[in-house]
Write a structure and sequence with these properties.
Number of strands: 8
CATH class of the largest domain: Alpha Beta
Number of domains: 2
CATH architecture of the largest domain: Alpha-Beta Barrel
CATH superfamily of the largest domain: Aldolase class I
Radius of gyration: 20 Å
Length: 287
């Protein structure tokens, strides 16, 4: 909690407009953190972002946590649903958690909102497109406990040791998923995340990427630098230049990733932005 307080304090001191979005989630399930309600309250009171959101699988969304989300003013919660059939859910997640409980937990949250007379947090439920009647079951099952339900589209995570996420998830439907990805992708050169995003890991490492679960894009550490120092560092600038100059293969994570091509994840296209218009390198290469 001390590290989180330090992050919030640094963001309060950062000059300029508020953050567009502060996401209280990164890798893993955020509601595992026992301090989640306190973290939300602290971030909201600091008034540092236009919107505060989180992404959860809702398995730990108890009535108490639901009440705290409403009480402390969480703006948006994205709920990841992995299947509507118990056998498929266990196949994908390795968990025997009853998926009906997820629906019940979301009902708790909607009831808490009604009691408080508020529309926040906005609840958005998503499931990866299954290219089957599983899609209709999902829409029917969660429509009345969410403010929005939609089908997420196939994408590839960072590839490690030859593991193919799409193939592992879709099995016999891999060709349909791969075609869908290509049909909704743009042949971008540069990933825009380094120009818009700072991701702080639980251990304090900071990266310009929110999908790099192997840590290849780690650039700084809030235990030794402030967020502003990291953002303004030569290392961060060099990472941005690497993207614009199509040198992603120089980074162990970027070389294995193509999620930035997906039009479902970003429509930003910064290809062709002149590298010389980026700020100049600082003389102190340790910054």
């Amino acid at each position: 909690m001390a590290r989180f307080r330090r992050i919030i304090e640094q963001l309060q001191q950062w000059p300029g407009p508020k953050l567009k979005v502060l996401k209280l989630s990164l890798y893993g399930e955020p509601l595992i953190a026992p301090d989640f309600p306190e973290m939300l309250a602290l971030a909201k009171q600091a008034d540092i972002a236009e919107r505060i959101e989180t992404t959860t699988n809702a398995s730990l969304l108890s009535p108490e946590i639901a009440e705290s989300m409403v009480r402390h003013g969480l703006d948006y919660v994205r709920v990841s649903i992995y299947a509507t059939r118990q056998d498929r859910h266990q196949e994908v997640t390795g968990s025997k958690f009853d998926i009906e409980r997820i629906r019940e937990n979301l009902l708790f949250l909607q009831e808490a909102k009604r009691r408080a007379g508020t529309e926040r947090p906005y609840v958005s439920c998503k499931m990866l497109d299954e290219f089957s009647d599983e899609n209709d079951r999902f829409l029917s099952m969660f429509r009345d406990v969410a403010d929005e339900v939609y089908l997420d589209k196939p994408h590839t995570w960072i590839k490690v040791d030859g593991v193919n996420f799409i193939k592992n998830f879709y099995g016999k439907k891999t060709s349909s998923a791969e075609k869908d990805f290509e049909d909704h992708s743009t042949q971008r050169v540069a990933c825009p995340m380094a120009f818009t995003t700072m991701a702080v890991r639980a251990n304090g490492a900071v990266a310009p990427c929110c999908v790099d679960y192997i840590g290849g894009t780690n650039i700084g550490d809030i235990e030794t630098q402030s967020l502003q120092e990291i953002w303004n560092s030569n290392a961060w600038l060099e990472f941005q230049k690497m993207q614009l100059e199509n040198r992603k293969n120089e980074n162990s994570s970027c070389a294995r990733c193509d999620i930035f091509r997906s039009d479902h994840y970003t429509k930003d296209n910064i290809d062709g932005f002149p590298v010389e218009k980026l700020r100049p390198l600082k003389q102190d290469v340790n910054q």
